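User: Structure tokens for this complex, please. No commentary.
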Amino acid sequence: MDTYLPILIMFVIAGGFAGAFLLLSYLLGPKKPTDSKLSVYECGLNPVGSARERFSVKYYLVAILFIVFDIEVVFMYPWAVNYKNAIKDGHGAYMIAVMGVFFVMLVLGLFYEWRKGAMNWSNQA
Amino acid sequence: MNPYFFYAFATITVLMVVLMILQKNPITGAMCLIVSFFSLAGLYVLLEAHFIAVLQILVYAGAIMVLFIFVIMFLNLKKEDLKTGRRPFYQFAALIASGALVTFLVVQYTKIPPVSFPESVAGFGTVEAIGSLMFSKYVIAFEVIGLLLLVGIIGAVLLGKKENHD
Amino acid sequence: MQPFIDQIISECEILQGLPLWFSYLIFQLIFCGIIFVFVAVFAMLAGYAERRVAGRIQSRIGPNRVGPQGILQSLADGIKVFLKEDIIPTHADHILFRLAPYFIFIGMFLSFVAIPFSSQWVIADLDIGIFYLLAVESLVVIGIVMSGWASNNKWSLLGGMRSAAQIVSYEVPVALTILLVVMYSGTMSIQGIIMAQGAAPWNWNIFQTPFLFVAFFPLFMGSLAEGNRMPFDMPEAESELVSGYNTEYSGFRFVIFFFAEFSNLYLIGALATVLFFGGWQAGPLPDFVNGLLGIETPLSAAIVKNLVELCVFMFKSLCLVFIVIQLRWTLPRVRVDQLMNICWKYLVPVAFFNLVVMGIWMVVVPEYVTDIVALCMTACGVLLLGYFFYRVAWQLKNTKARLRFNPLS
Amino acid sequence: METNIQNLLNILVGGITIWILCAGALLCLLIDALWPRKMSVPVYTIGILTLIVTLCSAWYQWLQPDLPAAQDLLVIDLHTLFFITLVVLVGILTILNALGYMQLHNDLTAEFCSLIIFSIIGMVFFFSSDHLLINFIGLETMSLSIYVLVGSHKKNFKSNEAAIKYFIIGGVASAIFLYGVAMFYGAYGTLKISELAMALPTQGLDYLPKTAVAFILTGIFFKLAVVPFHFWAPDVYEGAPSPVTGFMATGVKIASFGFAIRIFIGINVLDMPQIQNLLVVVVVATFIVGNLLAIVQDDVKRMLAYSSVSHAGFVLFGMLAGFREGRYEPFSSHTVMFYLLGYLLMTLGAFAILSLMIRKRSEATHYTDLEGLGHSKPLLAGLFTLFMFSMVGMPGTVGFAAKYSVISLAVQNGHIGLAILAVVMSIVSAFYYLRPSVTMFFKKGAGGCPVIQEIPFTSSASITFCAFTVIYLGLNPDAFIKLAKIAAF
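Assistant:
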């Protein structure tokens, strides 16, 4: 736990500094708001409609595929850490077999995704 | 384990989750959830489960929250969409039911006889320890999870992909 | 960090009177402060350097007025921006608009906690350090998406979404590549990974096997993309999106985004150094310097040792930073669909392939072969580098340009 | 490490049925990925072959005198093998139904086949493991595949709606299930059912294990769609493509009961009086609500949804019936197993016929769509009526044998009140089960083309099989009840 304490300290320092600086700049800077200054920037024109329109589903697909692959990769890390020692103990083949099955499924998923065109960014919705 | 840290993190976690439920704006709610994920990670660190703590941030706060935010933006609920009819009876009933459940569980948990946990073994919660368990005793679970994730990929592609043959 | 603090405490009598946890706390505070200042200064200098390099590449001068050779330019800019009005658009989501810079700022500084600058100077040597770096990156993503959404500006939103999709996609090849290094070193601690390498180039990870060499490129490209650097700076492609997710930000809030971008630059370099170029490993150099200076007390010796290692680390990482800066002004920007294709259709399969071959290699190939391969690869690397310089010289000769070695001119 | 390799070999040999399934599913997926949209027929053939080989290997293992002692994470005993047989049978019939359905709807996606097999794999892990972790992963694999299958009719609005509803409800159910599992772990530090069973009586804990069981049961109840966790069922059953609905109505329930029996007997759930009361309440509510609401439906699929609710109640009642003088007799779970077999056959038969109903390129299962079917396709209408009769529990069909064995067990063990309720509700169910048949035979269609026009070969195969077995098992139930008795704990 002790090794993690500095993270908390850094968290506080960074957050505190950011807050302090923002406060300082708020105090120092001028405050002359006008309507057009506070309006949304749209290359000098009056903004048209709201920006918060619905988004293409492809972003969603990318995110969900990322999650799946992220989790798969996360599962591979404990394997990777133990791999070198396992080879030393002469169990390299076992480790390869165990990961091989997992890996085949992962690669099959990637391949499937590829062939189904889920990776083509441009010709989707 | 330092009890002060525990209580601090636990309070933040619960508080943020409650806030998340009460938020009107879904994005703000999602942000509350992120904070609660971080304090959960803090709790895991206190439990010496460092790997899990980092995973909590990497997978939940990083990956899943991005998806959450995407979905919220994707749905793009306007303010008027969010104004569902308030149903005080249901709210009241839910409050009573959840309050009763929480009280019940708290009472039950306090009844767990005090177990003196052994000091954490050297290497407990490290990646090595998790890995050696995962690839010996729980190897089936590991492989089935691979299968589960494959199903996830198929599902995402099948449902999320627009057919381009028509 | 712990041993170093212990050493200081044992040397310093005033500290021995204090409770141990208190002095630890004080030291950790101090070191965090030092890192904070370092990052701030680095970001400013990098901003300046970037403009100077850009100037040189585009045959112009770049900033050279404020201070000697314009080195204080960033400071002047900072002060100027500091005094600007803090504008929050009326239609923005006020809470999130204010909150987003904090996420980015904190996320960025948190990653520096785990970077080992020398054998003892690392604030938190976590046993899952590499993962920690990946995890903290996610804070930045959230900050970016948040700022994009909160601004209620079309450019911002598009930039934020693109950025998130991009960072998120490139995390897969990056994680897979790091996996390769973890496999080879057998640990996830950053210090452990450095320790598994050596000072000499043939002990660096990049020259250990051909696969690690290949793996360097997905990592490097991935971290460029995660840092929104050229050629992957789609999120803030100024020709399409004004300034991307930070379009609506002004004043000091904008400076925070600027800060994040340039400190990320250092992270790119540091990560590659740690994983592939031997980190702070300096071999016999510290002892040599100690002997040269005639230092005897253990504390001073330790400080000198760490300083030498710090210099080695800085040198390596700053070289990479320079390459990254140069890339920005050399390569054109890729399109969004190309960006995604590069990730999913090239980098990820390459990383997968690498992983398989590497796994088999580690079992099959005996150690002495590995050593020979490492030597051969180092030789090839040196030859390649030599060829590069030869080409540069040839080009200079052919174009009859004069090579000027004064970088500040 | 040597033990690891030994373990691995044990698992490989013991769980051979599962590995065949996995290999088949992956092969289907690979072929589909290699030649997208072109290889549907070979993929389906491979899928069916895989399932048949699995069935054979399961039976081969059944006949082995000493079953290979697979690892504790994967228990391959007769109970498991019996349930594997059931779910694989469901899989084969579903794929046959789906082939017909997709031929009619002109929409042959090969993923369907691999998803069915994936979800069967999930089911097998769900009920065959002694470790709650694996149970949960199996549950999730099963559910995730079915969420996708439910939504696989992408252009159908109802299908999308059903997928979302089922996904959210399923997610909640899984979360509740997992919370119960976590409580067990928190209280006893283990997730193995056999270890929990030993730890339960010794500890001084009172309500915590019961709460945990209640949570786990709630999770399963959602999957089973028993009252009061049934409200999603009609919408989802209606929206999902008909073969998928059949798969959900049978496969998920069989798997959930397989797991329920394991945990009921494993940790003596029924010996906890509170849990027993809870079950009684659920069973009574399910009987009443399921049967009464089925009467007022206008759509055959919705009606069958409520019918499956009430059948789930019946099976749960079968679990409760084995309770005698303060103790549960593990052996009596054979009635439940036989009931599930019968339920599977008649439900899938009915859904095979429903899958053929198409009008204007979409499913047509409203009662008005059935009008005149008795005249245009008398044999098919007759078989549908047969399945409905079996669901009511008409003597001579498997439905009768199944209900009889449950009710007689209940009477033997003194659950007279519940038994009477079950009989009454079976009589009530005749009202709604016979309504489609009445519509088919006695109402003239208002013109327009009949709802069933062509009958693909595969569908007729599965309908024939179901009809034959429904009658055969109805006439000779003893042999199969004996099998179930062997398989029961």
